[in-house]
Write a structure and sequence with these properties.
This protein is α+β, with helices and mostly antiparallel strands. The protein is built from 21 helices and 23 strands.
Amino acid sequence: MFQEYDVIVVGAGHAGCEAAVGAANLGCKVMLVTMNMQTIAQMSCNPAMGGVAKGQIVREIDALCGYSGMVTDHTMIQFRMLNLSKGPAMWSPRAQSDRMAFAAKWRQMLEENPLIDFWQEMVTGLVVKDKRVVGVRTGMGIEIMGKSVVLTNGTFLNGIIHIGEKQFGGGRAGEKAARGITEQLVELGFESGRMKTGTPPRVDGRTIHYDRMEVQDGDANPGRFSYTETPPLKNQIPCHITYTSEKVHNILRTGFDQSPMFQGRIQGRGPRYCPSIEDKIERFSDKERHQLFVEPEGRNTIEVYVNGFSSSLPEDVQYKAIREIRGFEDVKMFRPGYAIEYDYFPPTQLKMTLETHLIQGLFFAGQINGTTGYEEAACQGLMAGINAALQVKEREPVILSRSDAYIGVLIDDLINKGTNEPYRMFTSRAEFRILLRQDNADLRLTPLAEKLGMSGVEARMERVHMKNEALKDITEWFRTVSGDPMFLNPYLESVHSTPLKQKIKLDQIITRPNVQINDMASNFPPLAEMLSKYDEEIIQLAETQMKYEAYIRKEMEMVQRVSKLEEMRLSPDFDYSTISSLSLEAREKLNRHKPTSLGQAGRISGINPADISVLLIHLKQV
């Protein structure tokens, strides 16, 4: 019935969709198996993409020829660049998405790829021979054979939905849980655990008093995620902000005795940085109110997402409490919030390629690895799909380092540190934040996509070459042209910067605090004329690189020092129990993780500097 596929992807959420794209863009024949073709790329939680650190990930996905950025640009209803009051390393794009249009656009782009086939059914197990995966088995007993398999099961593995004292099987509201895969993987020797996440009520926008809330508009000049020529955003839709109150908190407390979380019915760990409203009340009992973001689900729906009010309390308690919130006094609820508990597999059981140690050709991506968030799932899916394809083609895998991308930070954290709670990306997790900005993802990663031979990379590389030439021209101009005090001093005084006593090179002026390149141009005609040749994205990128040149140079020096440890290779087959001078914990952890370099070994939780010294001595003796 089916041909043998190069890559089989199980699950069509954000991780699964990017996995299919990553493999297909390398010329592999892909089978994407999903329980429901109508929920491909569904936004199960909030209708938004990007945010702090997450926005950087979406741009990195796009730079590697993934689709998340393009889909977001085509379907967003609002765009905001977050953290503009901070340094450029912290700037993070975020888009409010049209939920239905987002899923529809994803499906359209997948269906336009002739190398991707689809099958609608539940996968209940893997076909494994001699510790290598050779296919999947469905609920109807059909076997689909493939050279590699990427599992992206999201919250569906033995998922249980909790609302108050009610609980029922499900991977998402209205959809059944997936059973069989966890049990088989455990039999094969994998360790599994439980995690939980939650979602807030959805409400009827026609019954909201928006005039009683704060308005949150998008940027006046909205940006985009993709480095391709996606359509500009027009007719943005505002979000709104409101707050809980002590009265709301007291109503919610009346349901605590029925809370599945407080009464111990939920065993899985929830996300530390996105807690339920009842968890916020308990953990931050000194706070009189909590901020809520009222987010429209799309242009052509009245459904509204109440971001910040995630709850698993009884539905009547949720409804009574939400109607005490300013602006929600007459609100109607479409469905209550709920918690969902599901299986995951500690990611320390994976190689840096996201392939499992135990079963060759089997890759994990997304929430199955203990992460939370669309963006975190999507980037894992892309990397798993790329590496599955490269393995099929008998090519070297791609492993992004911590200095290459936030994607590299995420995967390195998961593999070497593991996680016992849903992992979320933050800028603070990256040591090289100034290098890993949202504005230079294409310069960092698109050359890698070209080297891999990703489909559609040619036009992207042409743009990268143009940007590099433009950056070179602008920075060289600043080094050679001097600023005239007659033109610039009034501006410098207005931003409380020391006036010029004589002409000095512009590259010395642009590094001053509060001095902005466009404001300088408004006061210095030669600069305005030069910049008129370039678009705003390139101008801002040039300004950032000039302002932070010294910091960028320091981070590059740090990268070079770290890379020396990465160059010291370790055999993945070595038995560390033979090195008696290593601590017992180190021997156990190293044999489990099987690091491929001394640098990776040093990042494994529980490995201390003394253990690294022992390994250094061992390497010199080999």
